[in-house]
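Bit of a strange request maybe. I'm writing a small parser for structure token strings and I need a real example to test against, not something I typed by hand. Could someone generate the tokens for this chain?
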Amino acid sequence: MTNELSDPLQERTFQYQDSLLHSRSPRFVFSSVRPFATEQEYEATVENVRSFQEGVGQVLQQKLLHRASTRRNWLEEWWLNTAYLELRTPSQLNVNFGGPAPYLEHCWPPAEGTQLQRTSVGLWYTLYRRSMAGRSGLDMDQYRMLFCTCKVPGVTKDTILNYFKTESEGPCPSHVVVLRRGRIFTFDALHDGKILSPPELLRQLQYVTECCEGGPEGDGVAALTSEERTTWAKVRLSCTHLISLDPVNTSILETIQSSLFVVSLDEAKPYATAEDYTPLTLAALAGDPTIRWGDKSYNSISYADGTFGCNCDHAPYDGMIMVSLSYYIDCRLRASGGKWKGSDMVRDISLPEELLFRLDDRVRHDVQLAKQHFLETANNLQVVCCAFTSFGKYAIKQRKLHPDTFVQLAMQLAYYRKHGRPGSCYETAMTRRFYHGRTETMRPCTQEAVLWCQAMTDPTCTVSACVNKLMALAQNGEGFDRHLLGLYLVAKEEGLPTPHLFRDPLYAKSGGGGNFVLSSSLVGYQTVVGVGAPMVLHGYGCFYNIRDDRIVMSITAWKADPQTDAESLFQNLCSSLHDILQAATTSQL
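Reply from user aminoacidic:
Good idea to test on real output. This should exercise your parser:
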């Protein structure tokens, strides 16, 4: 990582250059690998690490240091390519994240006939938020990617196009794209330099709806964005499929790619509640692919029952950027009661334009195949998103425990109870204190956590302090997963054989190489919750928020694996939360 943004006098990274390899390797061996190893396996891995440290690891470290000396962030390009752009699996379910909007808990409970009016108000707040500042002291580059950003498929690697500009940088696209019933519309969200008001936005959305009601469904070209990446790239580029060389199609693609964001007018009625978000959460991640442009950085989804969600490409930015936007809108809606209190006047503005691709039968067949493939995968995804309402942050802090430590230990205990073994766990740690920083990995499944799960009789501050220390290390750019990735990629770029360390069985078993069975993320201490698919077929995705009086958890699993079950893990999690609080109370922490 590069130096912290708050220290402008230091421009580059690796303050403790020569000690990094030796300080991080022991953490990898003991903290991460030990819980999954027999004594014999552990000794073999220790020898592998020693050999790596004393041999090729030193060579790779020096090459990595050289790379760091020529870049403000040595990891940025590598991470984007390796974690996102070079992946060939379909993005929309495997990479994208989404989530339900919390507005249904207060001013916007499910109610038919409210979709367009509520969408116009929410859309106005989103457009207004476009000009707001973010949190000071953190790298803000990812906020540039929230609007006017789209991933473009490539045969071997995707690219990201970003059209966003600040006022000082010049003109920025100001149109939005609306998808309904497989059809695509666009309109400018500005008129005479001013954002369209909710009544004006409502008029535009009503026009789109009127065009679609009673008429045929559109071609559903958006479904292609849910396809395997190379397949989608070939469909897009093939001149026999028309999309690339036809000037009309090229213009439409650029209009979608450069748009502020996509508004999806969905006819589904998830009818979620404040205690059970499951239907709405599932719809956000696995809903109709013909009205989600899966490559866009932000799809704002509006449902027929007046509830809302989102689906976002993960490549341009991390989840907390969307959480910031969603929480801002939630706060504004609470303050206004979800009502527009300004003028009802509608200016003389142009009506939305429908965007019509020129397709041949082969492309239409590809669209149908994409829909089929998406629905098959979506039907394999199990989602549970429910609120644990017995207690929350307030009760946990009364016991002098850190709330996130508390939940992570409960997650470890729940997995251990269900599967009879420790679960390699990834928890996102933000590194935006650094130039163009994104995330590092915290590994909560330590040897201490496993021993605690086995005993579960006397939880003490020792475990809490250990996990908090790991989180602090990760947030300060001292986690080891991204460092190990850098060493691996140096070897790859230099054409060297893959070092034995990365072929050690315990490397993957402990989660290395993206093999964590628990992929988790604390979304925050407010109302917003998210959802993402498991990292591996035999794993779970776990997003959660911790509020004063409750913990809202979304858990995903793949139905094809007979050992995993999201509902069972959630029930185990609830009982674990109760047990830990009871133990903490009894021990009088």
